[in-house]
Amino acid sequence: MSDQASAGLFPVLETASSKLALSFPDRSLSYAELAAVAGGLANSLRATGASRVAVWATSTLETSVGVVAALLAGVPVVPVNPKIGERELAHIVADSAPALVLAEPAAQLPPELAALPRHDVDLSPSPVAATPEPNDAAPAVIVYTSGTTGLPKGVVLTQGAIAATLDAVADIWQWTDEDVLVHALPLFHVHGLILGILGPLRRGGSVRHLGRFDTAELANTLADDGTMLFGVPTMYHRIALEVADAPALAAALRGARLLVSGSAALPVTDHQRIFEATGQHVVERYGMSETLMNTSVPARGPAKPGTVGVPLHGVELRLVDEAGTTIDTSDGETVGEIHVRGPNLFTEYLNRPDATAAAFVDGWFATGDVATRDSDGYIRIVGRKATDIIKSGGYKIGAGEIENALLEHPAVAEVAVTGEPDDDLGERIVAWVVPDGTPPTERELADHVARLLTPHKRPRVVRFQESLPRNDMGKVMKRALHG
């Protein structure tokens, strides 16, 4: 790993290979073409003296080239979600102060970005190669958090943190230059951009981006030459609903080497449906903007649906109780907050030394996620410390466990579980249910959970919904659920 890291993020760009690097529905680039296009843009960016650039992160070849060029130039890049709202965009532009914006030529930019100098990403090759990449400590990507507890914070990730994560997941997934990754993830965040675009380029493999998620196109592309699939639970849920009656989709998934889900927990029911139709287990992993990747189920390890596997190479992970004491037991039941440290961590929240200091405890990053650990060292996320741990009747209960149990009921299509104040219990368990067909009764669902888990984990209130509020990565926004 260290030899590759010392050669920069993308040593394969120096080979001028004719091998496919990036493929989008409208155009593809070989490694030789990518080196020429991104190298020329990198030199242009370096010549501007820009300390930071924004990228209008559409799901396009231009976005990918723009980010690679900025990394080659040593200019930190701020990916911007094209669906972002006015207030968040104004904050991000003011906070990160980009010198210019990179965009595809046809893109219509909102006023906050249109006011900046604009550099359209030209896919014409340049005869001038880029100079060597910066060192590992150089800031590379600034990803803004979702801002669920205030204005979004800019997470500063270095070249070294990205390299360490990509090498660690390559190790646990046995990812090589022979792999062809297929995905349709957005390119403004860690999953789609860093894992899904930079990951294949660091390995010297190929990526085929679908542009948008479509199960038929996914099946065709995987069946062509794809070996790996990255997705989020909303995508795998659609696959799970269709795969039993879609022979081409089932065959394509069956032929893939690795299926990876991330960004939120994949319900056990979806795991089961996909496995029954394909014989393939979906691998889950766990990461954050601040930490990149922390854990994963190994490609060749025991399949444990509902877990996110073991710590990656170089990542230290501990569980701590409410008093801050490290939990040494691995019983699969004791709940603690996840703390991590390692070369994968961010360096700071941009312009927020107070928030940076508050995020660390004795050198460990406090994730705010709570989990259990079993005897094999596998981590099971039970939720967020702030929203997914319900203290009811003297018990600490993880919302995720109840959600998985409710999803096993045939009349439940989607569900979110929260807690709300209760004079007797402290908090009562509330289930927000999107029914599949005729809604079941509240008593039926409560008895279902009591039978599968224990009586004190049953929902005391059930609220039926037409849909659940989700963000762009498919995560349910529980703070938007109100009684």
TrEMBL record:
Residues 17-350 form the AMP-dependent synthetase/ligase domain. InterPro entries: AMP-bd_C (IPR025110), AMP-bd_C_sf (IPR045851), AMP-binding_CS (IPR020845), AMP-dep_synth/lig_dom (IPR000873), ANL_N_sf (IPR042099). PROSITE patterns: AMP_BINDING (PS00455). GO terms for molecular function: medium-chain fatty acid-CoA ligase activity. Pfam families: AMP-binding, AMP-binding_C. Transmembrane segments: none annotated. SUPFAM superfamilies: Acetyl-CoA synthetase-like. Residues 401-475 form the AMP-binding enzyme C-terminal domain. One of its GO terms (biological process) is fatty acid metabolic process. Belongs to the ATP-dependent AMP-binding enzyme family. This is Malonyl-CoA/methylmalonyl-CoA synthetase.
